[in-house]
Amino acid sequence: MTQGGDPTGMAAVARLLEGSAMSIPVELLRWYREIGMYDEELVLILHLLYMRDRENTVFPTYAELSRRMTASEDEIAGMIQRLIGHGLLDLHHRLDEQTGTWQDSYDLSPLFLRLARTWLERNVEELPRPWATADAASRLFRLFEEEFGRPLSAIEIEQLIQWLDQDAYPEWMIQEALREAVLSGTLSLRYIDRILLEWQKKNIRSPRELQVHRQQFQQRRRPAKEGRRDSRRVDEAPDPGEHPSKSKYEAFYKLYKRDSRDSTK
To answer: Domain map of the chain by residue range?
Structure first.
């Protein structure tokens, strides 16, 4: 019989479980949303940390992770793909010299490097360009996924990074090009790329210049719209020499004859 009026020993077991809690970096809990992670991805990371540190499992399967979470295997695969695309997780494929076999493992160091950069952002006035680019890419990943309503593919992620790194488009310009695509109902990176190329040809370098360009574009479209509207009015107007009921009855007879022919076939 246990002491302290706890015949089942539940309180003792509870204290034991509390004492076996794993160590979680405080910065991960404070900043996971800021670095672009969702709640379910945080839980996934915690499982990867626990399985690595406590169970020596460095490459758990989707099925193993799914049994510990409420997410399906497909959902876990999507989360891992997204974390890798956002530069928060990596895959290592190395040769084990002792066994001579190749082994895979999840590498969580990119996550902690991102947390370290977040800490530096609060203590250093200006970050090196590669870090600033990665930070802008993370914000754009999240924005594009919200507008597309799905995780970005590896090719789409590569395209976003290319816009920032190789083409040197500023973050605000990519956001505005996405806005143009949303308003036009054409959610395609190829369409957004054409928008960015067009703005580059126009030598647009600031939000103010883009605003002027949009105003000029609307002014050019307005006369064309009015011309098309006037032409439709002319086309729709009845012939002055034609009796207004004549065209109406001619249309009726044409329709009647066509229906008669169809019924005899």
So the answer is: 10-113, 127-201
d(CA 222, CA 229): 11
The fold for domain 10-113 equals Arc Repressor Mutant, subunit A (1.10.10)
Topology (CATH) of 127-201? Arc Repressor Mutant, subunit A (1.10.10)
CA distances for 157 relative to 33, 72, 92, 138, angstroms: 19, 24, 20, 10
Residues 215-231: tens digit of each pLDDT? 887 887 776 555 555 55
Higher-pLDDT residue of 243 and 49 is 49
Q: What is the pLDDT of residues 123-149, one digit of tens each?
A: 655 555 555 666 777 788 878 888 888
| Two domains, one topology: 10-113 and 127-201 | yes
How crowded is residue 84: how many other Cβ atoms within 10 Å of its Cβ? Answer: 17
- How many C-beta atoms lie closer than 10 Å to residue 163's C-beta? 23
Full-prediction pTM beyond 0.85? no
Side-chain-side CA neighbours of 119 within 13 Å: the count stands at: 11
